[in-house]
Amino acid sequence: MKLYKTGMDVRMACRKQGFSGPTAGQAPDYIQTNVVILDKSDALDFLIFCQRNPKPCPVIEVMDDGKHEAELSAPGSDIRTDVPKYLIYRDGEIVANESDLTQYWNQNLVTFLLGCSFTFEHALIRNGIKLPYYSEGKNVPMFITDIDTVPSGKFSGPLVVTQRWIPSDKVVRCVQSTSRFPSVHGAPVHVGDPGKIGISDLSNPDYGDPYIPLNPDDVPVFWACGVTPQAVALNSKPNIMYTHDPGHMFVTDIQDEDMAAF
Amino acid sequence: MKLYKTGMDVRMACRKQGFSGPTAGQAPDYIQTNVVILDKSDALDFLIFCQRNPKPCPVIEVMDDGKHEAELSAPGSDIRTDVPKYLIYRDGEIVANESDLTQYWNQNLVTFLLGCSFTFEHALIRNGIKLPYYSEGKNVPMFITDIDTVPSGKFSGPLVVTQRWIPSDKVVRCVQSTSRFPSVHGAPVHVGDPGKIGISDLSNPDYGDPYIPLNPDDVPVFWACGVTPQAVALNSKPNIMYTHDPGHMFVTDIQDEDMAAF
Fold first, then answer.
1. Is the ipTM of this complex over 0.90?
2. Domains (range + CATH), chain A
């Protein structure tokens, strides 16, 4: 796998060389984001949804309607071409998987860039916590919980979480180190018993790949996940919605430490 | 001065007994907010403005259009009556000062509650930093800086800051203790020389009352201020905008520690 160093390198590879792979491990010092693109008529309700649910939907940037450059977080970027893969939803159903949105673009589209867990995963790794799916080219396991998000307009639905196995003597450190990054999902939403948040079987995630704990006393820890807005889209059925394909993120020019709260 | 204990006590006093005073020191454990009410046609641009400028405009709650109850932060409240004093702006000019907005209400109004510095001031006080304007019934000094906010649609203008004198041996602690509260202005935007942010004379604030440092080596420290959206309104001239009168805040049911990031 070719490794790109900066956010701009990844974006240019998507735009010019057809890079269409998952972005985990790419440009490791740069903030990667979830992408949600909606018609302007849905934008206020969705932005209020994000404000009411900052853990799954931490807003990194909202682009003015019709703008396809992320002027603040990735100057020179083009959101229509700089993501490896896109999903297109109509009325809550996936209707296409594309590598370029140019033909779909119009002046009423509003783009939201939402924080992604890759940032705090680097913090976990720096604190000695192993994430084996990382080196195996797999996706983190994701589960639909029985926790409802706070609705806004047509947007409502369950919270989706990621799950990671944390050594029991690292749980405190893991809460501390991820709390520094509230704009990229931040502190966990739950530690321990999956049943408490409506998850019955950790070996059978709703998205991504399960993985085996390295030690039998590792503790499952759960974080709000940026796939939540996609689950909400399925539930809420906006006429049109474009997103990244999970795991295939938009990479900005912002560096991890720029996002640290303290 | 009668002291009210809870957010609801203050709101009911505004609603029923005509309480119209400043809210500093009232319901000291409860989050107080700035209030901005706009027509729905301006709401998306303004919410994006807040997202781009989270230090001066930390959003605590956005109410659905036409709703006058803050369902999430103050159930049972009525934003039309529960603030001690309101200002009414038309095209960027103050046209009235009212104690009740009921006669002005319509179904297209969207209410934004924005964090206020009273919360982190309690953190300063708990850390042994004296704020004499508090006990003297005065307002913190506020200055218009030469730092521009990031514009959104018609909303643009300079950052307004509050200034406090901090003993030189408490500056680090002051940064740490206020960093815990990013949703209520959080960490300072500047420490030291006022000239670096375009302030020429600390004895002559643009709003509020100047105060004398307790020790000659106290350091001026500056925080983003929730009056910024009002300065922006003057600059941006939305057709209609209702706000609280500075210092006369909306008091929620949320407690200070609910807002702490860590």
1. no
2. 7-117+236-259 (3.40.1640.10), 128-228 (3.30.2040.10)
